[in-house]
Write a structure and sequence with these properties.
The structure holds two protein chains of two kinds.
Chain A: E1 4-6, E2 23-24, E3 31-34, E4 44-46, E5 53-54, E6 59-63, E7 70-72, E8 77-84, E9 90-97, H1 114-123, E10 131-133, E11 137-138, E12 147-151, H2 162-166, H3 170-180, E13 186-191, E14 204-209, H4 217-224, E15 233-236, H5 238-250, E16 256-262, E17 271-275, H6 281-284, E18 294-298, E19 305-307, E20 319-324, H7 350-353, H8 356-359, H9 393-401, H10 405-411, H11 422-427, H12 434-449
Parallel strand pairs in A: 1-14, 2-17, 12-13, 12-15, 13-14, 16-20
Antiparallel strand pairs in A: 3-9, 4-6, 5-8, 6-7, 8-9, 10-11, 10-15, 16-17, 18-19, 18-20
Chain B: H1 2-15, H2 25-35, H3 54-83, H4 92-125, H5 132-142, H6 150-165, H7 178-189, H8 191-194, H9 223-229, H10 247-252, H11 264-276, H12 282-302, H13 313-318, H14 322-329, H15 340-360, H16 367-404
Helix pairs in contact in B: 3-4, 3-5, 3-11, 4-5, 4-6, 5-7, 6-7, 7-16, 11-14, 12-14, 12-15, 14-16, 15-16
The chains are: A alpha/beta, B mainly alpha.
């Protein structure tokens, strides 16, 4: 058993629409695809022409500057479209599935050195699974990361029970850790009561106990081994690590993963096994509650991305959430009404006056309304209460708004990514778009520095 | 509710860009969001949000101020009827009614001037109306003497809103507390209307209510004013008709002073609401009292020969604007320190400075106002020092990492 790191700051948000712990039947989709913009920082270059045959593992596109960053087809069939938008920006690559599952030849994983390990993963189209801090972008294999971090649990609202997903493929997860540890030391964050706690080796395992965002890999990095200027750290999600494990263990490319389908708008909230690159509609079609206007979110309600049935599954997420838009709610006099059923951490609401342990037992209904107008930052200490990192979030956000690079560096911009600010954005009474501010700040900084 | 919604929806095009009344867009928007929680949904980032917003926060402060305001109204009447010697024969309601009518114009002027400027600026900048002035607008009448002329109040409010807030970017960007700037402006520009012993008790009748001649031996000085002017080592505090005034009077609030600041009990009720709703920081509030109490205590035992220094430390906390400032002014999140450690330091310094000013410069009986304004100025510096510890820790870590490579 690993030492337990107790995290006090943060908040759990319970919502209606949790996924039932069962697998819903799911079949492979006819059309598969990838939106290159989901791989933040990657500039796509098509590897094939429209109409070319593809097999499982055939490269669809790669990064213009770092050709090792390849995205491969999860199915066999034919590349049917490369859709482009304004200024010929590539919107997506579409593959028609022939359901034969023919596999391209792939060399077995070679873990003799860090370089061969990276090369093997690059050839298997798995290097894009990693993200890099600073900047929250795809990695560069020329870098020698100080460590690779993975968080094996998720405490975001409606998040999937990762134990339920991972325990079935524990040996693959272990194989993934073994493989990645050839590149850099692997740090694994497990939940204190998880079935995984104590069963993973060849890694530096830390157990965490606390509310969201204790499950965020950024929080775990900050507690275990914070990133300093000049250092590079890679992160990966556990399901992608399992895919690497399958490849390292058996030499096969199997891009299937489990997606929790959640939210009050989901008529059949359950777990679905789908391939990477599946259309979102593979899960949502026929499964969205009728009547009303719904928003489909790739990921959890706090840090996920707005998507639609016609989009492709974001490669890094394990969850799809459907929430009512709520833009016709017309709630009267919100500034004075008691609003007993509303979730808030503020003491002017019933839910905010409750102790957290009591509030955690109640399920709340949410829609996507911001529930207020955007203001300058007024209240102090709001972010701090849900930001369990050794960083001053308000001051960092202000330095990003002012785009003062020296200040941003000094206050720890290299340690954060947008999702670390999700809980702060949720509680912000000035309704500031913190994740967007951080995203834009990181992108602008990367342009300046690299 | 539906009819209201329909009416608003029907009016909306007229007030939208290109509409006939688009010059009142911000005002319409302000009233719409006042009636209904905005239906706008999140465009980026978190898809769900906490139900709390700045409107609700500001309203909580306004509600917290209501006990102090109501009591202030009563006390205005009480002091007047005491001064004209008719207190015994007058019932509760005439006393309150007198005070209500005396205070109401100030409230109206403050809100009209302040909100007028807010609405105009919001329209001009194409922004939503910020709620900050809802609080400042009620604070301002509560921290001026009852005899402060309305036109001076209007000038001061306009000055404060424009120069202390709007030119800096509006609510959330101001360096100084807007209400205190109003008071400071009054204090330095019109000192005769803001101090002395003629301004704290209303002497004329209001709309025919409360007619009468001042009693012989009338003195209108506040307790702190009396202490400062005292020639004896330990000051005797009296009320308007020269009878001794007890500590209990001060706790209840039946003493002369700015309209809302006299009653410790009413302020405590407000403080309770602010603390329960966590709108104000308990750290700031507590540390102001600790800082003030400790400083006054040190003067008490230090043996300094002056009636202000010898005023018992607990009297310092209940007389004048100390409690009001500690609860409603020092805790303003925008102008106080924003880091948790900083709040302790900031509050303590506010309390300490207030007592230092009172004791060492008895001419400025109202040390609290100056202390808070001064610390407003230093709050960013306090935060800087607190944050700098985190910054140096990070730099040190980076150095040790880079030296290994």
């Amino acid at each position: 058993m690993a030492d337990v790191i107790k995290i006090k700051k943060g908040l759990n948000i319970r919502m209606s629409g949790e996924a039932a712990k069962e697998f819903a039947p799911s079949a492979q989709s006819k059309c598969m695809g990838f939106d290159p913009s989901d791989f933040h920082g990657l500039v796509p270059k098509p590897a094939l022409k429209v109409g070319d045959e593809v097999k499982v593992g055939t490269v669809l596109f790669y990064d213009k500057r770092i050709p090792e960053l390849k995205v491969v087809s999860p199915v066999s069939g034919k590349l049917t479209a490369v859709n482009r938008g304004d200024r010929r920006k590539i919107l997506d690559f579409v593959v028609e599935n022939d359901f034969k599952g023919e596999k391209a030849a792939v060399k077995p994983f070679d873990g003799t050195s860090a370089e061969t390990a990276k090369q093997s993963l690059a050839d298997a189209g798995m290097l894009v699974f990693f993200k890099q801090r600073p900047y929250d972008v795809v990695v560069n294999p020329a870098d020698a990361p100080r460590a690779v971090f993975v968080s094996t649990f998720d405490k975001a609202p409606l998040a999937p029970d990762m134990d339920f997903i991972l325990v079935k493929e524990l040996s693959e997860l272990q194989a993934g850790i073994d493989a990645v540890s050839k590149i850099a030391p692997v740090y694994v964050g497990v939940e204190k009561n998880s079935a995984l706690n104590g069963r993973l080796k060849n890694a530096i395992v830390s157990a965490f106990d606390g509310p969201y965002p204790a499950s965020n890999v950024g929080v775990q990095i900050n507690h275990v081994a914070p990133i300093s200027k000049g250092e590079i750290v890679w992160t990966i999600t556990p399901q992608e690590l399992v895919m690497i494990g399958r490849y390292a263990m058996r030499g096969v490319l199997d891009f299937s993963k489990v997606i929790a389908y959640t939210g009050v708008g989901a008529s059949t909230p359950a777990y679905y096994r789908v391939l990477q690159g599946s259309p979102v509609a593979a899960i949502t079609e026929a499964n969205v509650a009728r009547g009303g206007d719904f928003r489909i979110i790739a990921g959890n309600p706090l840090s996920g991305f707005k998507t639609s049935g016609s989009s492709w599954l974001n490669p890094y997420v394990s969850q799809i959430t459907v929430l009512p838009e709520g833009d016709h709610a017309d709630e009267l006099l919100g500034w004075i009404m008691p609003r007993f059923s509303k979730f808030s951490v503020a003491g002017s609401f019933l839910s905010g006056m409750m102790p957290a342990c009591l509030r955690d037992k109640i399920k709340f209904d949410f829609d996507t309304r911001v529930l207020g107008g955007e203001r300058h930052m007024i209240m102090s200490g709001e972010y701090d209460r849900v930001f369990p990192m050794d960083i001053y979030p308000e001051q960092l956000v202000k330095s990003i708004i002012a785009f003062d690079i020296d200040k941003m560096e000094a206050l720890g911009i290299y340690e954060v990514v947008p999702e670390d600010f999700a809980a702060a954005e949720f509680v912000c009474s000035s309704k500031m778009e913190l994740q967007k501010i951080v995203r834009d700040g990181l992108d602008a900084m990367r342009r300046e520095m690299c | 509710m539906n009819a209201l919604r329909k009416l608003l929806d029907k009016m909306k095009p007229t007030f939208s860009e290109g509409g006939r009344l688009s010059m009142f867009r911000s005002v319409f928007d302000g009233f719409e969001t006042f009636l209904f929680v905005p239906n706008s949904t999140s465009r980026s980032g978190a898809h769900i949000h906490d139900a709390n917003d700045s409107k609700r926060i500001m309203i909580m402060v306004v509600i917290a101020l209501i006990p102090a305001m109501l009591f202030g109204m009563y006390n205005v009447g009480y002091q007047h009827f005491l001064a004209v010697g008719r207190l015994a024969e007058t019932g509760f309601w005439p006393v309150f009614w007198y005070g209500f009518l005396a205070v109401l114009p100030k409230l109206i002027v403050s809100y009209l001037v302040g909100l007028g400027i807010e609405f105009t600026v919001a329209q001009w900048k194409g922004e939503e109306i910020h709620e900050g002035f809802l609080v400042s607008g009620i604070l301002i009448p509560l921290i001026v003497p009852i005899e402060c002329p309305l036109w001076i109040l209007a000038v001061a409010t306009a000055f404060a809103v424009v120069f202390a807030k709007e030119i800096l970017g509006g609510t959330g960007m101001n360096v100084f507390n807007v209400a205190l700037i109003t008071r400071a402006f009054l204090f330095f520009a019109y000192p005769t209307k803001m101090s002395g012993d003629q301004v704290w008790i209303r002497q004329d009748d209001v709309l025919g209510i409360g007619e009468g001649q001042l009693v012989d031996g009338f003195t209108g000085a506040t307790p702190l004013g009396q202490v400062a002017a005292s020639t004896e080592p330990v000051a005797q505090i009296t009320n308007a008709v020269g009878e001794p005034s007890s500590v209990l009077d001060a706790v209840v609030g039946l003493i002369p002073g700015s309209i809302g600041e006299t009653s410790v009990i009413a302020i405590a009720l407000g403080a309770l609401l602010l603390l329960v709703t966590r709108v104000a920081s308990w750290k700031t509030m507590l540390s102001v009292f600790v800082g003030g109490g400790l400083t006054a205590f040190l003067f008490n035992v230090g043996g300094m020969e002056s009636p202000v220094a010898q005023l018992p430390w607990y009297d310092h906390l209940i007389y004048g604007g100390f409690a009001f400032g500690a609860v409603f002014m020092a805790t303003d999140p925008v102008t106080s320190a924003r880091t948790e450690t900083g709040k302790w330091i900031y509050g303590f310094m506010v309390g300490m400075m207030a007592i230092l000013i009172r004791v060492l410069y008895p001419g400025y009986a109202e040390g609290m106002m100056l202390a808070i304004l001064l610390m407003n100025l230093f709050a960013p510096l306090i935060d800087y020092c607190v944050v700098q510890r985190n910054v140096s820790m990070r730099e040190k870590r980076a150095k040790s990492v880079n030296s290994k490579i």
